[in-house]
Amino acid sequence: MSFTQTVFLPVTPDQAFDLVTQPERLRRWQTLAARDDLRAGGEYRWTVVPGAHAAGTFTEIEPGRVLAFTWGWEGMESLPPGSSDITITFSPAEGGTNVTLVHEGLDDEQAASHAEGWNHYLGRLVAVAEKGDAGLDVWGMPEDFDQLKSADASWAVLSRVLTAVGPEAANLPTPCADFDIAALTDHLRGSIVGIGRALGADLPEQAADDDGAQADAAARAEARIAAVVQPTLEAFARHGLEGELDMGFAVL
């Protein structure tokens, strides 16, 4: 079976394409964290809600026109990563763009559950295109928690806070007497980088330069932290809860 839905976005086709492909924009409406290798044959991994990770491969990319990729869920035997197909087309319309999503390769139960999910998230896509922010995702609270889901959920809360912190706030004070917002953001990023290194995360190259360095006032706090949170959370999921972690200053 398949699911098909079309929504209208009051933006250009290129802007609509960016909303569904760029990690910083995906985090506004669909994902908590996103890794994209945006090329035919490139892989992606999206944390949609705490503990739920979609993954697959991009199969066709025409910016502003077509995006196609395989789809599935980590840990789901009935629909593993790459086991279904999604095609999104972008058609110019008066005042904006019609975005049509077709999800194929689903059984009846999967089609029903994904229809509910896509209707929810396409509604959030419309909201972010119209208002710039879809708000807190009410689906972001899992019914049961473990440490891995709690890590994802912690980032869900933190990202909402950081989204409101613009470059103009860099020098504002915080409850920590020795840290303004820029310094506290640096400290947070450095802590996450340290955890990511211990987990063997594939961190961005600039992460090493940020240890002990003052934040770039021109960079958005949410984007800076997200760049190191995503690979760290992914490495945590691979590592799991068993064994030890050498932080350098202590073994946990």
Provide mean pLDDT, rounded.
90
Low-confidence sequence ranges: 207-218
Helix content: 25-40%
How many beta-strand runs? Answer: 7
Summed up, the helix count is 6
**Which second-level CATH architecture of the largest domain applies?**
2-Layer Sandwich
Oligomeric form: single chain
Coarse structural class: alpha+beta
Largest sheet: 7 strands, antiparallel
Quick structural summary:
The protein is 37% helix and 22% strand. The chain has 252 residues and is of the alpha+beta class. A seven-stranded antiparallel beta sheet has the order 1-7-6-5-4-3-2.
Strand and helix map with partners:
Elements: E1 2-9, H1 13-21, H2 23-26, E2 33-36, E3 43-49, E4 52-62, E5 66-71, E6 84-93, E7 96-104, H3 108-131, H4 147-163, H5 181-199, H6 221-239
Antiparallel strand pairs: 1-7, 2-3, 3-4, 4-5, 5-6, 6-7
